[in-house]
Specification:
Four copies of one chain form a homotetramer. With about 450 residues, chain A is α/β, with parallel strands linked by helices. The first copy, chain A, has a domain of about 170 residues: LDH C-terminal domain-like (Alpha-Beta Complex). Chain A is about 45% helix and about 15% strand. Chain A is built from 16 helices and 13 strands. In chain A, the strands form three sheets. A six-stranded parallel beta sheet of chain A has the order 3-2-1-4-5-6, with helices on both faces. In chain A, strands 7, 8, 9 and 10 form a four-stranded antiparallel beta sheet that branches. Chain A has a three-stranded antiparallel beta sheet with strand order 11-12-13. In chain A, helix 2 links the parallel strand 2 and strand 3. Chain A starts with 6 loop residues before the first strand and ends in an 11-residue tail after the last helix. The interface between A and B is medium-sized, with 35 and 35 residues.
Chain lengths: ~450, ~450, ~450, ~450
């Protein structure tokens, strides 16, 4: 790949807006020559992104030589691609809102309903057919391409891609550990009265699964800074640590880190994902009600927020289209471009990745999807050996890896009764069997158009 | 042992009545020469059993030559014992009732509170010191004795015995799989219009843990009778199968087997323990409320039942003492005597046993306590290789083996905060962290006299 | 099977004489009703056995009701069989002699050339096609039959049967551990001045592979008799222990047990197979030359012995045919009939068996063929958990399990170059690559008629 | 460490000359401030190196600020060290020659006698006490130092360091894979008519153990170049590939790569160590006699070579001392300095390392010493997950890991009879037990001054 004059990127999206803008603006900051082919079931979305993307070349800070092209079909977008980027949020706004509100009517509160919780199971069932379809098309059009999934449910998406095409070179790229590393950096700065230590200078050993992952080593310049973290953790455990007091009330993506602190005191490892994801992967300890979540100082996704976001995105989109606004070109907030550059042979990168466990997490099952650090180099990703999860964190994690296995078996056997076992076993499921059955049926009914896949047997 | 004229048995009890009577009456049916030494913190209990036991020799059906002696100290009872039988129910009636009712005030219904559920955790914490004490005394007085635990919590008791004396030759003996085997026998009889097939003629492959164990093979005369079981299961799934309609309402030990049937249809394996135990090891699917349990046709332990049982036992005890009643001498309803005879070298016995997993259950952790079939022979127990639990049953089981490990770590490190992690992780725990903390504190307060052990560090 | 009036047995032989006579005479001692169908490529062998077998009914000690029938085809013999007994010694007398003498010309001495050594590899290559053929015919004619292999190479035969029909219910039955158990019994008798202790009263824990297996526990009446064994071992290590002094010089099947004693002192476990087999599975420690073997007091197979045996068998056969001699009817020197009776549901039997490792030997690879004790009951064989081999015995054993895997891969891929890797890796192989290549080619040439199987790709 | 003005390095040597010169000249090429403390039992060696080292500062190409100091004691050298470098060749010239010649008198030819072969076992026994002594001193003087072993026997040395101080941060650094990578580079150059491709541009997946390790992936600029390697391998298999024809005859460190080619054709993986080491870890396939070794075109170590080397070194040493010659200052032929710089936090380095297997080689035992790639960063080494060895290579490798375990058990239990089991099991051992015993005794006698360690029990 390294000697290619120009690379081909397929960008496959569904209900994704901001992610694509971020990708394009980061790409514009690099000295890269590429053609990006968009495919979205909503053709208008592709066309909009094509227009916005092609305007970037006119900005003076642009360094890249990238052409954006909206395509009509998945095959067309994928043909001979070097990279395939997936930004899929499968489901309409109504369906996503259902993922949250139907369980809530039965007393089950969720924070994101993206990967875990009853909503997470339903979202998984919806996402699998889309991923299988992409994987089959990858097999046909670009079997050697690196396929990078960026959306949730991460683990199920990667498993479904492999279901569709077992040899697929797929991995997951997210920023989910950045905030936790930043928090460590913040504490190290505070402790040493140093000027702001940068997140990237905190070296971590990372292990776990997407949405429920952990640092069990944190060093700064080769020194163990876990004792510093512990000191601040103890200070802030009761009231949390917020960059902007109360922000979590309006923005469900921020938190006061109280869940993180509680987990650390309990298990001795630093939650590397956001509080809302960590809380949602546990029993209802932190999220039995909206009030409980509030006490723990993290927000939960809700219809108002989602609708507001959509309106804002549409407005911003219009401005970007007609030139009233421009995307800010800035390098590498995410790791995605770095990972791609490493795979192109331009440098080595060590960063977090979601991929199949071949033993990099020693006490999780071989074959499940895990998140650890890995070495990205020319056309190669090698996970770094990451050790073992603490016993009790392991037990909590195994519930999810087991459920994910169950959901995939349901997909393979096209049997939604099997998936119900995962629904039942989710840690947030506190209902009895009859109620759970009713809820499951209601939720399936709400996404029935996606269930054709499960009838083909 | 085989050439001994007479064996020495230490019978260590606490709040145990019926179990001892059953043991003595079964022993009387055998051609065995033994001295049984009783030890109970309540000396009067030992004296009563001594009197009742020694009367057995006068009954014409008695075949044994057994002398019963009440002792004052644990050491005295254990000295040079060949067998040590533990029948411990640690805690006063009030404490046992608390195990059930305190959680119920928070909405957590339990069926027995013996091994799982919040009550199970508390009972474990109470039982560990007693077992460690016995183990240390065994080490001193009879290091080569076989130590047979018969009470709950089985797994924690065996782990605690090993904590006190790592080389202890301990195993667990229960009858908990008999009813399930009997049910298979019943269906085989019905199917074939054969006269009553006996439970002992149903051969099973057994695997799992005490209270949550499974048959994945059932044969009769070498033929697979799983298809017969399935047929009857499907017929009875909706309304259950009861020997005496509605009996579960007054006797918490019987059930309509609906939980068993539901589990079979879901996972393809036959629950080998009672419905109430199976239900209690799961999330609140079958037991979210007393009403739910009723719908699933199994009873739950309650104060009235326990009190009535005590009164009846006391009355019966008085009659046995003064000769107004006698114990019925009958061979081997339980397997305990058979196991002892095998260990004495009198025959080989294949039966279920609770012991350390050395791989007999291939997908449970090495070192946890499992229940499988084993070969008992002269001074030897060898587990039979029993295969793997189905994926989803495995996931449910791992929650308990993990919790048991956590509880034992709490005992080793004398840190009740660690045990709280097991309390939190119990499948029946649906409370948030604050409520769970409060309940845990209340429950610990209720057993504070037993917690001295955890302060010694 | 248990309720069958009469069972059907297929007895498939090749170059086997004595084994069949022993089987028939043991069968005659049992209260069993059966029809035995013989198949041998040499039809005359079947007819002879038919005649001899049917004469047994006339002897007064006969208890069985067995009819023997010689068949023309494998299919005919197997049709609807309940049991299939394999007694295959694949190869002509010349070929078997070549297995021994060709390597010896290069300085490689072997004791049996049955399972290990260069001759063992060649014999394996010859045996695989025969076993695959039987397995495919079993699949067609009697898929549920128990298939019992009695000949060498045991492990390869069982692997080849599974290659031909993966679901085959096959196991290996041998007497190879009897002599070692008898030796323990002998020492226990001597030690205690007891009248002769019987081999069957020595209980063992057995683990390893056919030809290279071990007792790591030996008890008599529940007591550990390892210390007694050690005492006698030390006494006899230097000069060996023989029942008949010097017998090993004329009978290659007996030994002075010196290899066994040396191994015990080195590794602490009792070799459960014959000295000649144990020696042959090691590097040339005990068998670098015929003289070395002689010093260690075990015989080695040779052409004279084989030829004499054939002549004797032919003479005896003639006498049996014409009534000048009769087979002695005597129960169960071997375990074969016992195992069959257990599988018929007539009793439970614990005995040694060769079968797939599902974890019964914890540190040998899952899926290789191991020898341990197992519980035989109605239509079921369950291995008893047998623990771990000592580190250094493990290392020696892994060489053979690895070689067997290589040989089977050669068979699957029909590639004799792969099998050469096993030939090279055999512990007795001390040649350099060129010499080894030459020897391999010579030996293959000698069995070329059997190699058609490996050309079909 | 990163913010230290100056680092402290302890350089512990024994019979090591060239290695130290190379280290000093590479260090001089770096912008590093350090004090290096020498310790050698031969004080004169330290003084010589001190003088030679301190002259480097005067050379114009010198970039470093390094002071060299000869010390009198191990403790003095180690005090507060940041790095400890071990360059131990334990034994006199006579002893090393004995390692080779005593076995050869019995017909056992070795190529280096450093890690494997009978000589390797003896050398291991000699080396263990020296390493244990260093480790105990590290524990006392610089418990957090990184301890870098550079000499053979690598695996035993690292195991012995851990025996002396289980928490030691030790790893092995060698160049042994460079030549194999260079060969791949050579073939890629030839194939593409490119100007010389550099070894560092060949990316490999490396796995195995020191002296017997393998590339199972080789890429150049992200492209798989295994097919190119195969093509050239096939061309050169018969006659080898030499940079200088016949050089192997006079220099035992070079070879015609015929062993490498033969192994590749047999197993499909590229031997990453030198032919002589690979050959010496196998049975006598390539090295049954000196002539066989010659046919395979690799040299074997011999007394003349060793003596000549010593004379040359002494002469060169004298010249360096009196200024008639200077060391050539040149950066990083080895990886040692790079690894140190990475551990100091100056950069990230991916390179090969010998360290404990925590799963980086999935089918070698956990806890043995393996060689794979690893990520070196600030005060941290994380192995990269490296997959599995092919079945047959695994079998060959397990012989050595098993033997190393045996040797270490001998050291722990201070029992040279245990070590004899490793001696017996070495793949080159073709003797019978009596001869092997005699040879072992002779060889032990030859190093009796080193055996005090084994008598202390």
């Amino acid at each position: 790949m390294a000697d290619k004059k120009s690379i081909r990127i397929a960008y496959i999206s569904e209900n994704s807006t901001n992610e694509c803008w971020q990708f394009m603006s980061e790409l514009a900051a690099e000295d890269i020559e590429a053609t990006v082919f968009f495919y979205d079931k909503d053709k208008q979305a592709s066309v909009t992104n094509e227009t916005i993307g092609n305007k970037l070349r006119e900005q003076p800070e642009n360094k890249a030589n990238v052409i954006y092209i909206a395509t009509d079909t998945l095959d067309e977008a994928l043909r001979d691609a070097d990279f395939v980027i997936l930004s899929l949020s499968v489901g309409t706004l109504d369906e996503i809102i259902n993922d949250i509100y139907l369980p809530e009517r039965y007393g089950i509160v969720q924070a994101t309903a993206e990967s875990a919780g009853p909503g997470g199971v339903i979202r998984a069932l919806r996402t699998i057919p889309a991923c299988v379809e992409v994987a089959e098309a990858v097999k046909k059009n670009c079997p050697d391409a690196w396929v990078i999934n960026t959306g949730n449910p991460m683990n199920i998406s990667l498993m479904a891609l492999r279901e569709g095409y077992p040899e697929i070179k797929a991995f997951g790229s997210t920023n989910e550990t950045f905030a936790a590393a930043e928090l460590v950096a913040e504490f190290v700065s505070k402790d040493s009265n140093l000027p702001r230590v940068h997140r990237k200078d905190i070296k971590t050993n990372l292990l776990g699964i997407n949405g429920f992952c952990w640092f069990d080593e944190v060093t700064y310049q080769g020194q163990d800074v876990m004792p510093i973290y512990r000191k601040f953790n103890e200070n802030f455990a009761a009231n949390g640590f917020e960059y902007h007091t109360g922000e979590f009330k309006s923005n469900p993506k921020v938190s006061g880190n109280r869940v993180k602190f509680d987990m650390f005191l309990r298990y001795g490892v630093i939650a590397a994902a956001d509080d809302r994801h960590i809380a949602e992967h546990c029993p209802p300890w932190y999220i039995s009600t909206q009030k409980t979540a509030g006490n723990w100082k993290f927000g939960t996704l809700n219809a108002n927020y989602l609708k507001r976001l959509r309106v804002e995105n549409q407005a911003h989109s219009k401005k970007l289209m007609n030139g009233d606004s421009t995307l800010k070109i800035a390098p590498g907030k995410s790791d995605l471009i770095n990972q791609m550059k490493a795979l192109m042979g331009l440098k080595n990168v060590i960063t977090n990745v979601d991929m199949v466990n071949d033993g990099q997490v020693a006490n999780l099952p071989i074959g499940c999807i895990v998140q650890t650090n890995a070495l990205f180099s020319n056309n190669s990703i090698k996970p770094v050996l990451s050790g073992k999860l603490p016993d009790e964190v392991l037990a909590l994690t195994l519930r999810h890896t087991s459920n994910q296995t169950t959901i995939m078996r349901a997909a393979k056997e096209k049997d939604l009764d099997i998936a119900f076992n995962a629904f039942l076993n989710d840690p947030l499921m506190t209902l009895n069997l009859d109620e759970a059955t009713t809820l499951y049926t209601e939720m399936l009914t709400g996404i029935r158009s996606h269930l054709v896949y499960y009838l083909n047997n």
